[in-house]
Amino acid sequence: MAPQKAIAEQFAKKFGINPRVYRAPGRVNLMGEHTDYNEGFVMPSAIGFYCWVAIAGREDRRLEVFSQEFPAGREVDLADSAIQASRSWSDYPVGVAVQLEKAGFRLRGANLLIHGEVPMGAGLSSSASIEVATALALAEESGHAIDREQLALICQRAENDFVGMRSGIMDQFISLHGRAGHALMLDCRTLEFALVSIPESVKLVICNTGVKHQLAGSEYNRRREECEEAVRSLKKALPEIRALRDVSLEQLERNRGLVADVPYKRALHIVTENARVLDSVEALRRDDLQRFGENMAVSHRSLRDLFEVSCYELDLMVELANQREGVYGARMTGGGFGGATINLVDARRAEVFAESMSKAYQEKTGIAAQAYVCDPVDGGSRVE
Ligand code: GLA
Asked: Residue 171 catalytic?
């Protein structure tokens, strides 16, 4: 049964009323990792795994959220100005409601039933997909037409201020702005973006390592601090800079002595990664898949050696990919410390590649890993 039908039926059974259904996709990032919170460039695509939200309004101002994946639901009173995070899955939808209200969008009460398809812990933005699907549902059911840029920023605030993860804007933005057949080149400072068409001759293949190391959250926030430290140090010579986005490779090298070793390595990754995004966009525009693939390889090494967010399983996955035919490039994608790799693969070989990757990875690690052949999809919306 189609997921929207299944969730609508379950909702009707539970609440005795027919809901409306919304969905928002996860994403994979093709180039530009950890650059978003440095006000730089990223290049994600939305992928055909969705979070589904069935919703119906209520007469009071209570919000009840349930998930098909987790047993415990949560009920909050929207009039309560002191709603707290509960360290559970429900912090995502509840955090979105809190931030919508804080932004001045008064919400009506509602019942929500949520189903997440985006693999969790795979670095494919299951959290952004639940935030965005909830935000679309709550906004429209309360009669607010909020533009997508603002909605993305509200969802990011839910993650930053309510959940407590200092993530950038990439995931929420692409979940709202994705376009079938395209990647988005996003300037995370101005939020200007351009669509870049993905040639039909290639597929995006995602290989999930099946591991998510414990340190992911704390190390993520630490990387942000290290980047901020690099900016503070460089400001002594370059007072005009605001973020690593503003620093050229030449400026970084000239002022190498001002920056401590670790922040320097982080900065070197960011500065070169930003340049790789710009170069990769051009490469894709002229169908130069070879060049794009080379950039992916360099990006992975930079994330591994300079930004230090890779791990054994991700490195292995990339190595296995590089031994196979029809692969233009492979790199880790998302925050790191586990999760998935993104592989740019000749469309004719994609299925065989995916299958042989899962097999080879399982032989080496004993972990049953999934590989998905993906096409970019449109951003979130209501589903008829
Ligand atoms: C996570 C964050 C994003 C981004 C990536 C790394 O997915 O949510 O904002 O920083 O990591 O590129």
From this structure: yes
- Ligand 1 proximity of 263 Cβ (cutoff 6 Å): no
Give the span between the Cα atoms of 320 and 316, in whole angstroms: 6
CA distances from 365 to 57, 162, 236 (A): 48, 36, 47
Sign of the torsion formed by the C-alpha atoms of 372, 376, 378 and 384 = negative
Q: Note the pLDDT of residue 216.
A: 72
- For residue 55, report the phi and psi dihedrals to the nearest 5 degrees: -145, 145
pLDDT of 320 higher than 80: yes
Q: Which residues of 199-222 are buried (b: 16+ CB within 10 A; e: fewer)?
A: eeebbbbbbbbbbbeeebbebbee
For the domain made up of 3-196, the CATH class stated in words is alpha beta
> The tokens of 312 are what?
């054994």
pTM check: above 0.70: yes
**Domain ranges, ordered by start, for the chain:** 3-196
Tokens of 78: 């929207």
Rg of the chain over all Cα atoms, to the nearest angstrom: 21
In the block, tokens 């360290």 appear at: 87
* Among 216, 133, 211, 119, residue whose Cα is nearest residue 167: 216
Residue 353 per-residue DSSP state: H
Amino acid of residue 154: I
Q: How many angstroms separate the alpha carbon of residue 220 from the centre of ligand 1?
A: 8
Q: Is the CB of 226 under 6 A from ligand 1?
A: no
> Is the pLDDT assigned to residue 214 strictly greater than 80?
no
Residue 115, strand partner residues: 52
Crossing angle for the helix pair 261-285 and 216-235, to the nearest 10 degrees:
100
Q: Which residues pair with 205 in a beta bridge?
A: 343, 373
What residues are paired with 374 via a beta bridge?
204
Q: What percent of the chain stands above pLDDT 70?
A: 100
Q: Are 193 and 186 in contact (CB under 8 A)?
A: yes
Half-sphere exposure of 277 (CA within 13 A, CB side): 28
For the CA of 168, the closest atom of ligand 1 is 9
Identity of the residue numbered 351: E
Collect all residues with Cβ–Cβ distance below 8 Å to 319 and sequence separation of at least 6. none
